[in-house]
Amino acid sequence: MFAAGGLRAADAEQSGPETTTIVVADDHALIRQGLRLLIDGEKGLQVVAEAESVPDAERLTYAHQPTVLVLDLNMPGGSSLDAIPRLLTQAPTTAIVVLTMQDDPAFARQALRAGALGYVLKERAGEEMLGAIRLAAAGDIYLNPVLAARLGAGPSPVVR
């Protein structure tokens, strides 16, 4: 069985140079498990670790240097928004996609200004997460389409 925050040997063996590696950070085990199933089912994407708090997310991101960190906005142990600049300093090649229930454009704006490359609402994560991960891994910004329109970024969820 996989413990939160750990890396299975099979995970390390399956990672290749073309694999986008991902750390999933959410304080709800069900969300982490669902994202792992969604992500690991896609060719070229692989969850290498799971975190349940902001300090866990920081520690695992520093240790694994993943391509993408999926970061819940509201977790125990500190502010995810405050952690984004620290994460990017210690793991500069990691792209951050924020996962949240917060549909307030002000939160999306704060996350993007802090350095996140994606903002996905939990209610749409099943439809949007894989695309957001791929765009962030390529250095592009993904915004939930409704929030993009509310922020004046236009109808496209991709902002370049």
Automatic annotation (TrEMBL):
<feature type="modified residue" description="4-aspartylphosphate">
    <location>
        <position position="72"/>
    </location>
</feature>
<dbReference type="Pfam" id="PF00072">
    <property type="entry name" value="Response_reg"/>
</dbReference>
<dbReference type="GO" id="GO:0000160">
    <property type="term" value="P:phosphorelay signal transduction system"/>
</dbReference>
<dbReference type="InterPro" id="IPR001789">
    <property type="entry name" value="Sig_transdc_resp-reg_receiver"/>
</dbReference>
<feature type="domain" description="Response regulatory">
    <location>
        <begin position="21"/>
        <end position="137"/>
    </location>
</feature>
<dbReference type="InterPro" id="IPR039420">
    <property type="entry name" value="WalR-like"/>
</dbReference>
<dbReference type="InterPro" id="IPR058245">
    <property type="entry name" value="NreC/VraR/RcsB-like_REC"/>
</dbReference>
<protein>
    <submittedName>
        <fullName>Response regulator transcription factor</fullName>
    </submittedName>
</protein>
<dbReference type="InterPro" id="IPR011006">
    <property type="entry name" value="CheY-like_superfamily"/>
</dbReference>
<keyword id="KW-0597">Phosphoprotein</keyword>
<dbReference type="GO" id="GO:0003677">
    <property type="term" value="F:DNA binding"/>
</dbReference>
<keyword id="KW-0238">DNA-binding</keyword>
